[in-house]
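quick one, two chains, predict together pls
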Amino acid sequence: MTDNTTDAVEGAGAIDISKRAEESVVHESQRDREVLLTVKDLAKHFPVKEYSGLFPKTLQTRAVDGVSFDLAKGETLGLVGESGCGKTTTGRLVTRLLEPTSGSIEFEGREIAHLKEKALRPMRRDIQMIFQDPYGSLNPRFTVSKIIGAPLEIHGLVPKDKIKARVQELLEIVGLNPEHVNRYPNEFSGGQRQRIGIARALAVEPKVVVADEPVSALDVSIQAQVMNLMSQLRRDLGIAFVFIAHDLGIVRHFCDRIAVMYLGKIVEVGDREDIYEKPQHPYTQALLSAAPDLNVVRGAVPNERIRLIGDVPSPIDPPSGCRFRTRCWKAQEICAAEEPPLDPEDGKPSHTIACHFPEVKTNLVAEADAS
Amino acid sequence: MTQTTTPPAGEPGTQRRPPLDPNAPVVLTVEDLKVQFPTEEGLISAVNGVSYQVKAGQTLAIVGESGSGKSVSSMAIMGLHDPKRSRIGGSIKLDGQELVGASQAEFRKLRSATAAMIFQDPQSSLHPFKKVGAQIAEAYLAHHKVSKSVAAKRAVEMLDRVGVPNPDRRAKQYPFEFSGGMRQRAMIGLGLVNDPKLLIADEPTTALDVTVQAQILDLMNDLQREFGSAIIMITHDLAVVAEVADHVLVMYAGRSVEHGTAQQVLANPRMPYTWGLLSSVPSLTADVGSDLKPIPGNPPSLLNLPGGCSFRPRCAYSDRVPDNRCATELPEFLEVPGEPGRLSRCHLADPAAIFADEVAPNLE
């Protein structure tokens, strides 16, 4: 990362956070936020070797490249974007399954970005993860009792003789039959396995759960079951979620705030209504307009589709300036020269956009007619 | 590789379907298709008497959950089931030719030439060690007596047609050098190289991001208009169905449960399973805050299907049918009076009223 970009991002982060502080005074009644997790300028670069010529060159894949956000108690933040945008890596950094290259992750005022494994242990109790693949994320040789009981044992939360009872309680919470404690994962369906994964995450009574595409491997009818379970847990236990998904309908249903990522950066963050009804970043608009719409058959006027051409550029050598400019129809010279900071929308610090030419676009149909 | 050309902002969507041509020739007729797999635990009835037709230039979407038999039935059309491990009954007539009982040699003649298939995962369905252009040329050579260089040229043409930039250079690359969306484009090019009458697309966009999905769906619509192929689109995503399908067949546990035009099935469905599918998807306009309405339970095991209607254990409406008929008697797949081509499998006396009064208000 060049000094230039670091500065730009830091600046953006600082604005974001100071405004947020102001806002928490102004909108205290409206939004009673008790910030649990603050992520600032988070970056993760993976080395990749390129074997061209005599000596292999080591290049850096900038999977996450300067991401800042915060998460309040009981809040759900959705991370959306296309594959390769760094949403999963961000989730893994927050849970510290990966160590960031740079940047800070503050959990309840404590810096955890570079803690060593031993020092991390106690904090692992507070931040848990639910994985996408209900088949790969459960050890096939462990019984359910052992899978869910392991975190209880590791953290010494429950006396050994009471672990089984607690596991049964957890199974009941996630809607599984408590009598199935001695079964193995292969005896359960995909949706049931995902419930086991959720029970395992809940076992340690976390404050934050990072859910990485928790329902995308499930059939639609089962997806809704698992989503309802997560909504219920959120209500009953007050857990804050970082919800990573590409399904915009589900994100809208579940998340209070949404961060749209593109090529390792956040391009727009806002409350649900801001993102879905008044998106300002061209990428957010394109993403929303690309989602197929079921209401078409019910006679709804179809939204015009913004067709993005081509693919996401390589994170090894991202475009200069704004990373979206190579696919953006509004791109001008400044977009290549200067990286747009994540600036708040006028008078609304909770909605920030990283674009040189932000513009509310609510009715894409009218827009197309006018042009 | 990315293109840096300015994309047209808000270019009018071409995805809406043209009006149906009632005189279009029938390309595929499937009648009472049964596919069974004998296993150690017993006979798995993956497809249990399914019938449908697809006409030239039209798209039939087959919708259902995993295990509903949607892929298995289409693989039977392509002759992709091992004859030693499967039993196929009923009739499949593709372009007048009966395929149930056809030999592998006959299938080989027809694959790619008359019917082609696109798979969900273009990563594993293209040969990893062969250049993309060579794979397309090979499919062309298998059915045309031309020289290799002509076939190679045709492959480049095809890549160009499906929107792969720099087709000359791309043809000489391996699949791993393509992105997911480009690979799916190449796969479509491979499918269409012999101008087949029928294209079966099995979840062609499930593995892709929404922006790329939109590109691929548009491409398939454009190509269909150009080549006039009949398309069977297998998917679980009802929103995709709304965008691309003329007709929809909903399958559950190996049986067809509802059939009609996309408009009929999605806007005014008559079968509780279809209602459940529609209700469990959060739309981009639905009210937030309320819980989703999932279908309770899981699909039944194909080893021992419940008696009567297979959907009954998960159906919230079966108690409205007198005499417990849902549990004892399999409803027939019957045409809805006054609506030719519209079929559903349900005992409910007036499903249209139930949908309008109880289900539809929750869908908006």
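Residues 122-195 of chain B form one domain.
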